Each structure stands twice: as C-alpha cells, then as structure tokens.
Amino acid sequence: MKQKVPISTIMTQDVVKLNISDNLTKAESLFKKHHIRHIPVVSGNKIIGMLSYTDLLRISFADAVDDDEDEIDTTVYNMFTVEQVMAKKLVTIAPQTTIKEAAEILASKEFHALPVCEGNLLVGIVTTTDLIKYLIDQY
C-alpha cells in the first residue's frame, strides 16, 4: 500500500454545502438528491458546522419517508434550525494530511466525515466511504 498519500487525492472537492441560514427541509432535499450522508454548514466561505443525515433522523421521522419520494413532511423541520441540529465541535484536516492519518481519526471518533480545510476555508470533504473505496482500489 502507498505511504504518505495526501487526502487531497481522494477527497470530494465539489462539496455540497448548507448555509447557516438554510432550513432543514433544504438539507433533507440535498441529502436525498445527492445520495450523501454529511453536509458541511458554512457562513460565507467559513465552515462552522456539519450536519449528518443521522442528525435529521434524531429529530424526525425522516426514515419513514420513502427515499424515492419527493414530498417531505416538514412539520418537525420547522421547529428547529440548521444551527440547532448541526455538530459544532468539528475536527478538520488539511489537504496534505495523509490518508492514513485521516483513517486513524475516523477510526477513533464517532463520526464518519472530515471537512478538509485550508485555514477556515472549506476545500473538500472525505468520508469513511471514500476511505473504503481507496482501500478497495489498492487490491
């Protein structure tokens, strides 16, 4: 297996983002439209949080809605803001962080995505799925 490969080689660069002023209905729509499980929350270009699909499931019955269904019951979503539901204590990594280092962080924490930042500027995201795909490609 290759050593010292930077995370920038496998991270998603075209990141789906939420603005802090967006609502949870939009978040639900983005999760389903893009088939993703994590969305960084930004204020301008600065990352300030991370929203996961699991966060939405905790406050709603979203798992009862058919994945192919376009219509979403937004009653519960209107009771909360993105800021109230998102994770605020973020662990971020730099583009030059190695894949091994990123894997070690994800293996030791209870989350499954890492925002990749240059300073406070979001430049990508890497997930456990990205790491598994990379590992599969090595064989």
TrEMBL record:
InterPro entries: CBS_dom, CBS_dom_sf, Diverse_CBS-Domain. The keyword Cell membrane does not apply. PROSITE patterns: CBS (PS51371). The keyword Isomerase does not apply. SMART domains: CBS (SM00116). Keywords: CBS domain. Residues 11-69, 86-139 form the CBS domain. SUPFAM superfamilies: CBS-domain pair (SSF54631). This is CBS domain-containing protein. It comes from Flavobacterium profundi.
